[in-house]
Every structure is written in structure tokens, then in C-alpha cells.
Backbone:
């Protein structure tokens, strides 16, 4: 949570599969440490491509599911 009490990140776990949704300014190392403490290998990390890529140096990802953003605005 940030200083205003708003969530900065949500990490969902189902066995060794994790889904991550984060706002800017989160601690990659802290989230990676939490995942390492609660998983066995191999693990799967799902989320936005730019976010998942930031974890590649911290976690031995067995599989990653990349979610691409659609840059088009909808009205």
C-alpha cells in the first residue's frame, strides 16, 4: 500500500502459478523474494510483458504468460 492507503500491487497465487498486477514504483526485489519464499520450481508468472520481464533476473521462471496491452483507446 502507498501512503494514501491505496494498493500498489496484487499478487495472486494458485499452486506455483502467480498472476501479478502492479502500479509503477513497486519493489521488484521484494515481490521476487515473496514469490521465492512461497513457491517451488518451476513457477509460472503471468502479467504485463514489461512487468514480467523485470523479474527474469530475480526468478527462475519455468514459464511466463505475457499479456500485451492494447494501446488503442476506447470511448
Residues:
Amino acid at each position: 500500500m502507498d501512503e494514501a492507503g491505496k494498493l500498489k500491487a496484487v499478487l495472486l497465487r494458485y499452486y506455483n502459478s502467480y498472476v501479478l498486477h502492479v502500479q509503477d514504483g513497486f519493489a521488484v526485489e521484494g515481490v521476487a523474494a515473496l514469490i521465492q519464499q512461497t513457491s517451488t520450481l518451476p513457477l509460472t508468472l503471468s502479467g504485463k510483458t514489461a512487468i514480467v520481464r523485470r523479474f527474469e533476473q530475480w526468478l527462475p521462471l519455468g514459464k511466463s504468460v505475457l499479456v500485451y496491452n492494447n494501446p488503442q483507446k476506447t470511448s
In short: The longest strand covers residues 61-67. Strands lie at 9-14, 17-22, 43-48, 61-67. The two ends are 30 Å apart (CA to CA).
